[in-house]
Amino acid sequence: MFSNSDFGVIIIEDINLPDKNTTVLAGMNYKSISPVTKKTPDVDDWRTLIHFLESAEYSPSAYTLLEKYFYDIGYKSIADEVFIKNKRRERSERLSAMNWAGSFFLDVLVRHGRRPSLALFWSLLFVIVGIFTFRNPQDMELQNEKLPKRTYSSFWYSLDLFVPLVDLYSANVWFPKKECNYLVIYTRVHRILGWILVPIGLIALTGIIK
Fold first, then answer.
1. For the chain, what percent of residues have pLDDT higher than 90?
2. Residue 144 pLDDT more than 70?
3. CA distances (Å), origin 65, targets 2, 53, 150
4. Does 123 or 52 have the greater pLDDT score?
5. Which is nearest to 34 in space by CA: 6, 61, 73?
6. How many CB atoms lie within 10 A of CB 93?
7. Please, which pLDDT band fits residue 176 given cuts at 50, 70 and 90?
8. How far is CA 32 from CA 15, 24, 66, in A?
9. Dihedral of CA 88/90/91/93: which sign?
10. DSSP 143
11. What pTM value is reported for the model?
12. Contact between 113 and 209 (Cβ < 8 Å)
């Protein structure tokens, strides 16, 4: 329908598309595209263009072209939305099981690098879970009895255990008692989650994840 076509200006308004995947956009190019004829479309108007892509046969180049167009006209948030939609469509229609899983977790954790603040949300959530899980001082003991007595804090313990390569002098001082098997296991889970979330969040902030 639109494949391998070059347009100057495209206006998509109240278009009735055929069944999904019957519209082909691969190879389509344009200089300008608009969802309506009015001078200043609102955000919902612009999202009509995303619905247009979602209703067509999947074409990575069509998503990339629309993403670039939104960036060029100053709509970064909608451009990011197009990018995320592209990744989700790719995952549902193109990726194998292993790559699907990687794409899914990047989506959940940082929206493929476009929402790095999500990693902070997940990190805070798991630190809070740790505070609750390790809340009882009676379940904890000093790793070395020769160490000076300290007041135990579940906040500092959870944070120290979660954040990699940082020593807050709590996780290396305290440890769950051996009889608290579930706590012993969760200390490993908590630390692993930190080693996953914190680096991914930092990498997302640098823009490396794409």
1. 57
2. yes
3. 14, 11, 59
4. 123
5. 73
6. 10
7. very high
8. 17, 19, 10
9. positive
10. S
11. 0.81
12. yes
Q: What is the distance between the alpha carbons of residues 60 and 37, in angstroms, rounded to a whole number?
A: 26
**In terms of Cα–Cα distance, which of 194, 193, 192, 150 is closest to 172?**
150
Q: Is 11 helix (H, G, I), strand (E, B) or coil?
A: strand
Helical H segments across the chain, by residue range:
43-54, 60-72, 76-93, 97-110, 117-133, 154-162, 181-206
Across the range 150-163, mean pLDDT stands at 94
DSSP 148: P
With contact defined as beta carbons under 8 Å apart, do 174 and 142 qualify?
Answer: yes
Percent of the chain with pLDDT over 70: 89
Q: Which residues pair with 6 in a beta bridge?
A: 29
Which region holds residue 62: left if phi is over 0, alpha if psi is between -120 and 50, else beta? alpha
Mean pLDDT value of segment 85-94? 94
CB-based contact 148:182 (threshold 8 Å): no
Asked which of 14-23, 128-137, 147-156 is least confident by mean pLDDT, the reply is 14-23
DSSP 16-33: ---STT-S--TT-EEEEE
The helix (run of H) or strand (run of E) holding residue 140 is strand 140-142
- What's the angle, vertex CA 44, arms to CA 10 and CA 70, rounded to 5? 50
